[in-house]
């Protein structure tokens, strides 16, 4: 069992839990519960920052384009964007499919949770600023451009499931050696590993805090692997990250969801 913390529906308080990331179970009140048997709130208390082009395969896919306008050269610093609070939702809650949109893109990401104020952090010190890890689905409407901010495609309501918990930092042996798998309706659709990150987790934290402050509770998405699966109405998504757990959601037409 691994130490984690989470917020359950009906409470605004963080709970310390013992969880099994392999079989998605939680020990609570002397009983073992499956993740699907509990109602979760998203374990988010800060700002969520996404990182573009941080997987080697993703960068290779558009490498030729980066030497031409409007880019002119590959990026020298992390490319960041925000997932605003309206996008945040929890494990087992529905992902809305906007009217007139046929498919959504799954963005399986390791969420690095910051544990204390971090500014101008050296890579060798970066782990001391990490509280733990969670799973994030950086949902978006498929789009091609990395030049203009994809606000309409990435910032829709409930386009950022997070959870179900935050695994304590020391429960993860090496955040740069974690398997990431995406299942759609039980079928494996994507497989990658954080060893393929261009910037390791410590280097990413260092490079970002060189020009901006990260605060306690902020979540930094390490990146989304290439070949992101597409999903449609009724599809069930399960993102598994080794040693962290699994995040599950189902795609539902937005018109069927109560506001």
TrEMBL record:
Q: Does the keyword Kinase apply?
A: no
Pfam families referenced in this protein's UniProt entry, alphabetically: FAA_hydrolase
Question: Residue limits of the Fumarylacetoacetase-like C-terminal domain?
Answer: 47-252
> A single Gene Ontology molecular function, please?
metal ion binding
Q: Keywords for this entry?
A: Hydrolase, Metal-binding
Q: Where is the signal peptide?
A: none
Claim: Cell membrane is one of the keywords in the record: no
Record-linked InterPro entries: Fumarylacetoacetase-like_C (IPR011234), Fumarylacetoacetase_C_sf (IPR036663), HPA_isomer/decarb_N (IPR012686)
Xref: NCBIfam families: HpaG-N-term
Q: What is this protein called?
A: Fumarylacetoacetate hydrolase family protein
Per the UniProt record, the source organism is: Lederbergia citrea
The upper taxonomy is: Bacteria, Bacillati, Bacillota, Bacilli, Bacillales
């Amino acid at each position: 069992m691994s130490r984690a913390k989470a917020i359950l529906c009906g409470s605004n308080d963080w709970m310390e839990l013992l969880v099994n990331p392999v079989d998605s179970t939680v020990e609570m009140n002397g009983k073992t519960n499956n993740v699907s048997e509990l109602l979760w709130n998203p374990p988010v208390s800060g700002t969520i920052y996404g990182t573009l082009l941080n997987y080697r395969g993703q960068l290779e896919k558009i490498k030729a384009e980066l030497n031409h306008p409007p880019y002119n050269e590959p990026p020298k610093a992390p490319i960041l964007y925000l997932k605003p609070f309206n996008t945040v939702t929890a494990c087992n809650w529905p992902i809305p499919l906007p009217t007139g949109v046929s498919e959504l893109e799954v963005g399986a990401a390791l969420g690095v949770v910051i544990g204390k104020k971090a500014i101008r952090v050296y890579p060798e010190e970066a782990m001391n600023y990490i509280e733990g890890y969670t799973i994030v689905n950086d949902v978006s409407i498929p789009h091609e451009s990395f030049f203009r901010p994809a606000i309409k495609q990435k910032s829709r309501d409930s386009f950022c499931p997070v959870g179900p918990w935050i695994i304590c930092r020391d429960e993860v042996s090496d955040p740069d050696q974690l398997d990431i798998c995406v299942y759609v309706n039980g079928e494996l659709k994507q497989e990658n590993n954080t060893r393929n990150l261009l910037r390791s987790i410590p280097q990413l934290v260092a490079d970002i805090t060189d020009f901006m402050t990260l605060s306690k509770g902020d979540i930094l998405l390490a990146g989304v692997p290439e070949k992101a699966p597409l999903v449609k109405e009724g599809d069930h998504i399960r993102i598994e990250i080794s040693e962290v757990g699994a995040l599950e959601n189902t795609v539902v037409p937005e018109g069927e969801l109560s506001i």
